[in-house]
Amino acid sequence: QIQLVESGGGLVQPGGSLRLSCVGSGFTFSRYVMRWFRQVPGNEREMVAAISTNNRTTNYLDSVKGRFTISRDNAKNTVYLQMNSLKPDDTAMYYCRRALDFWGQGTQVTVSS
Fold first, then answer.
1. Which of 73, 78, 94, 113 sits at a 20 to 30 Å CA gap from 56?
2. pLDDT at position 100, please?
3. Beta strands in 1-113 (DSSP E)
4. Number of Cβ within a 10 Å radius of residue 48
5. Average pLDDT over the chain, rounded to an integer
6. Going by DSSP bridges, is the β-strand pair 46-51/107-111 parallel, antiparallel, or unpaired?
């Protein structure tokens, strides 16, 4: 059974940091590109970051470049999203996604004073 389980969300003040984690199971994690998406109610999900299987290539949404960093540890079947200098506009439900198919259940990030 394929599963993606996110954690690490929460409430943080503007300018703060959070690190999201997503653990995959039920498949060979190292063989798949992994992505982080986010969604605000009423809006479509947007891709925030993506990382290649070998950690060498990453892509970011323009609005998070320089603030967010995606990484992965294939030995731990985990992909991370380090989020720094958070802004209220970063408030959303964050989801990890295996390639272009399976989704995790999401973790809520709220940036507010």
1. 94
2. 85
3. 3-7, 10-12, 18-25, 34-39, 46-51, 58-60, 68-73, 78-83, 92-98, 107-111
4. 24
5. 97
6. unpaired
